[in-house]
Amino acid sequence: MHVHHHCFGIYDINRARMGFDLDVHQKRALYQDAITQFDYVLRHWPQSTPLYKEAELLREQARLALATLK
Fold first, then answer.
1. CA 18, chain centre distance (Å)
2. Rounded to whole angstroms, how far apart are CA atoms 66 and 24?
3. I need a surface site. Which of 5, 16, 22, 55 has the fewest CB within 10 A?
């Protein structure tokens, strides 16, 4: 359940990383959306869900990437 939010978060991170045609505002929006997607699944999944730790890691990666954008 809710796996599509996990996939959307991965998509947002990949699009921000590989979107050479994107400006900083677009990348910022994608990373913020990724964080929102991962926050959603982390609120709704039990910690025993196999993808839970991955979602935590990806959320932190998105936060760090967002913090480094200027």
1. 14
2. 10
3. 22
- Kindly state the average pLDDT of the residues 33-60: 97
Q: Is the dihedral of CA 7, 8, 14, 19 positive or negative?
A: positive
For range 49-55, the mean pLDDT: 97
Structure tokens at 49: 């869900």
How many angstroms separate the Cα of 53 from the Cα of each of 22, 46, 68? 29, 11, 23
What burial class does residue 54 get, using C-beta atoms within 10 Å of its C-beta: 0-12 exposed, 13-18 middle, 19+ buried? Answer: middle
> Distance (Å, rounded) from C-alpha 70 to C-alpha 62?
14
pLDDT exceeds cutoff 90 at 29 = yes
Q: Would the pLDDT of 43 be above 80?
A: yes
Helix (H) or strand (E) holding 28: helix 24-44
